[in-house]
What we know:
Layout: H1 8-16, E1 26-27, H2 38-54, H3 61-80, E2 87-88, H4 95-98, E3 103-105, E4 124-128, E5 140-144, H5 146-150, H6 162-179, H7 181-200, E6 206-207, E7 216-220, H8 226-237, E8 239-240, E9 242-243, E10 250-253, H9 260-274
Parallel strand pairs: 1-8, 3-4
Antiparallel strand pairs: 2-5, 4-5, 6-7, 7-10, 9-10
Helix pairs in contact: 2-6, 3-6, 7-9, 8-9
Amino acid sequence: MNGTNESDEAKVARLREQIPATSAGIYLDTAYRGPLPAETAAAMRDADDWELRVGRATEGREEDFDQRRAEARAVIAALIGADPDDIRLALNLPATIAQNWRALDATLTAGAIQFDVASLDSDFAIVPGDRWLMGPEATGAIWVGPRPRAADVEVPEVALGRTQVLGLARSVGWLEMYVGLPWIYTRTAALLARLRSGLAAVEQVDLQPPDAMAAVVCFRLPAWPTEDLLTELRRRAFAIVGATPDGRSIRVSVAWFNTEEEIGRFASAVAEIARYTPETMPRRRTLEVL
Length: 290
């Protein structure tokens, strides 16, 4: 239960209505791209419509853009326990910096697992905005720690458009103020444990060791090529999942908006598929049109 006496089930159902993509299937690929909240999409659309009507050279536009940047830095700083002045709206560290300083890539962490930059043994933290933070594509931020800053290391900001910056700020702010970060972290951890338990119960599943800094579960069925297994999971469970970068395993990423029923249904689909090989798998009958 949460502070308003609303059950988790009721809260998830209410919030899922504001994330339309959750009705397209079992959304288990947030590690690749998270869904957009309707509120973020509407704000971005309104900004584009406004510029369409009045143009992009209007008085006060740059001041507004600066404010949007400041908002994005502030909400990301709040997410990771940082000072907004230490946040750069950037996607990647320049190679010359990455080679000489310690950096944490929070691609599989930010927005799913709590972490505080003050506790990191890192000089930089890379925070993508389009995964668990549910912002627009190609957005993100980099935290610059005290040691690089003291050494006057400059991290250039990427030239994000006004609508992208607005969307990033809106999504992160929505998660922080409307959904609630403590609830997100607790729920994500519980769903992750439920998924691992369900898959571990399937004898044929080769489950990879957990990563404490990632909200993902990776597994494979030795009898199934990865692409064939992906196809079967999409067909039988309507699961939106991906593969690991090396293409050898299925990567399942959970998020707070997933339901317990979805996790159970996905694990059941894996168990059903594991009983067969690609050659022996019964094919579902197709509808015959007379």
